[in-house]
Amino acid sequence: MAKFAHVLLDAKHITERVKDAPEISIENFIGYTSVPVGLAGPLLIRSPDGTSTRAYAPIATTESAIIASCSRGCKALNESGGGQFHVLSEAMSRSPVFRFSCTEHAIGFARRVPGLWDYIAKTAKSTSRHARLVKLTPNIEMELHITGVFIEGNMAPDKKPSWGTVSSPRGVEVVTWASLSDEVCRAVLKCKAEDLYHFFRTTQEGGIRKGQFGSNINVANVITGIFIATGQDAAAVLKGPLAT
């Protein structure tokens, strides 16, 4: 950190905790920055197996009203019986690219890939206690005269919004639902259920007109705050809050 001393004179709030530097894996580590963290909730969550739990969410943010709004939404859901969910899928994609000297070699490679399923699945399993091959993508065969390989061809929607995320989710795909009664809307949200419905339909139309991915109103605020508070990769928020 000594080589950065001249630029860190006024950054003691960042550099005051550097004793655990050997345990940090980032480059040019100089310290930490603090973000206020608040708890939103509780939210009554009803699982597919019939059990239920009340969960809180830590949210790191400097924006006022986000946590209060989340907690008020949780209260409305709780008084309406809570939220339900199902996990539809869980997967992680990569899209390697293989360059060939001619079209015939590329076609031959593509045709041979399905026959490599067992070999690739075994190799993938050997690299992780959790990873399993669920969908096959091309792999390398030396005799096909491959001229170049890129580990990622930008077809996996990692850290970017795309229709690929909508059609084939990357990560965990969850569907969740709840019902809000008019009585709860009036008591907790201070509006009629009919007004809330028409507002949502209006924002849907607005999103369609401007080419928005998904149908939501600033879901990214909440997801980003949770990601930062729990040490997740905040850049993944670009694909996480589609909320379709």
Briefly, what is this?
By secondary structure, this protein is an alpha+beta fold. It has eight helices and six strands, in the order H-E-E-H-E-E-H-H-E-H-E-H-H-H.
Please give a handful of descriptors for the protein shown:
244 residues; alpha+beta; 3-hydroxy-3-methylglutaryl-coenzyme A Reductase, Chain A, domain 2; four-stranded mixed β-sheet; two-stranded antiparallel sheet
Describe the structure.
The protein is α+β, with helices and mostly antiparallel strands and 244 residues long. The chain has two domains: 35-90 and 168-239, 3-hydroxy-3-methylglutaryl-coenzyme A Reductase, Chain A, domain 2; 94-154, no CATH class. 32% of the residues lie in helices and 18% in strands. It is built from eight helices and six strands, in the order αββαββααβαβααα. The chain has a four-stranded mixed sheet. Strands 4-5 form a two-stranded antiparallel sheet. Helix 2 (66-78) runs antiparallel to helix 6. The longest helix has 17 residues, at 193-209. It is globular, with a radius of gyration of 24 Å. The two termini are 45 Å apart. The model is unreliable at 139-144 (pLDDT under 50). Belongs to the HMG-CoA reductase family. This is Hydroxymethylglutaryl-CoA reductase (NADPH). Keywords: Oxidoreductase.
Question: How are the secondary structure elements laid out?
Answer:
Elements: H1 12-15, E1 37-46, E2 52-60, H2 66-78, E3 83-91, E4 97-100, H3 103-112, H4 117-126, E5 146-150, H5 163-167, E6 171-177, H6 182-189, H7 193-209, H8 219-229
Parallel strand pairs: 1-3
Antiparallel strand pairs: 1-2, 3-6, 4-5
